[in-house]
Amino acid sequence: MEHGPGGYGLPGRHESFWMETTAETAYPPLPGNLETDVVVVGGGITGITTAVLLKQAGYTVALIEGDRICRGVTGHTTAKVTSLHRLIYAELIDRFGSRQAQQYAEANQAAIETVASFVREYDIPCSFEAKPAYTYGSTR
């Protein structure tokens, strides 16, 4: 059985599901000069989402990736989309105030709703579904 760094963690394989199950990408370099309104660098979920939103807004967009689409950060994620990020909200309130923490929460929730709308609009074959999120605390 394999374990995480230092021998800790859950047993099992440590390869990325996305990297193992997604075909390699090999797109040719852009031919010659290209005129575009916006260039998005990075073909992960953030770059692709940015390019789609800009295209929907009427811009001409070039999406440039130096390696494999969805290989970097995106390729090593769990694909969980959440607005429950650790216990960051207390820290945000302390550092920036309630209003900014609320804006952060609303922006994250809007992002989740955007992903859901993309799944519906583009009929993306995936297992996207809403699930409850919980944070558990303990004292020692």
Reconstruct the topology from this structure.
Elements: H1 17-21, E1 38-41, H2 45-56, E2 61-64, H3 88-96, H4 98-121
Parallel strand pairs: 1-2
Mean pLDDT: 83
What is the chain-wise order of helices and strands? HEHEHH
Distance N to C terminus: 30 Å
**Uncertain segments:** none
Domains (count): 2
Give the neighbour order of strands across the main sheet: 1-2
Overall spatial form: globular
* Number of separate strands: 2
Helix content: 25-40%
What is the strand content?
5-15%
Main sheet characteristics: 2 strands, parallel
Structural class: mainly alpha
Helices, by number, come to 4
**Rounded Rg:** 19 Å
Characterise this structure.
With 140 residues, this protein is mainly alpha-helical. The protein folds into two domains: 17-25 and 33-78, no CATH class; 81-125. It has helices at 17-21, 45-56, 88-96, 98-121; strands at 38-41, 61-64. Strands 1-2 form a two-stranded parallel ribbon. Helix 3 (88-96) packs across helix 4. The longest helix is centred in the last third of the chain and has 24 residues, at 98-121. The chain starts with 16 loop residues before the first helix and ends in a 19-residue tail after the last helix.
Please provide a brief summary of the model:
With 140 residues, the chain is mostly helical. It is built from four helices and two strands; from the N terminus they run H-E-H-E-H-H.
List keywords for this structure.
single chain; 140 residues; mainly alpha; 2 domains; two-stranded parallel sheet; globular
